[in-house]
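re: ur question from yesterday

yeah so i grabbed the chain u mentioned. its 122 aa long if i counted rite. heres the sequnce exactly as i have it in my notes:
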Amino acid sequence: MNAVARPARILVLAAAFLALTAWLTGAAAADGNAGAVYTSTNQVSGNAVAVFDRGADGALTAAGQYPTGGLGTGGGLGNQGALAVSNGGRFLFVVNAGSDDVSAFGSSRAASRSLTGSAPAV
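ran it thru and got these structure tokens back, copy pasting raw so excuse formatting
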């Protein structure tokens, strides 16, 4: 990776993190819970999105894992900012750093999370 591409990638990931934070903060679910928290497992053997329901008191409860179809790097905090939600919350995008691609999940609602596809990272 050249010296220009790396800072650009970091900026994209930082923007994705900020978008996800704004979406999670402002998107209290209609069913009364305080929303959800998403992260990636970043496992070398197969990356997945780990979902946690967030209670009104801030407590997190594991709500499942969804395979991305890609690979992680195995790094501890190397995946920070590697998720982003589209405008309107229709899609969740996840970076698979180990396989250098991005996976897209349809709908952020728990009942309809599904992998819709993946594409090479640019």
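noticed a couple things. The beta strands are 36-40, 48-54, 60-67, 83-85, 91-96, 101-106, 114-120. also The chain has one domain: 5-120.
anyway ttyl
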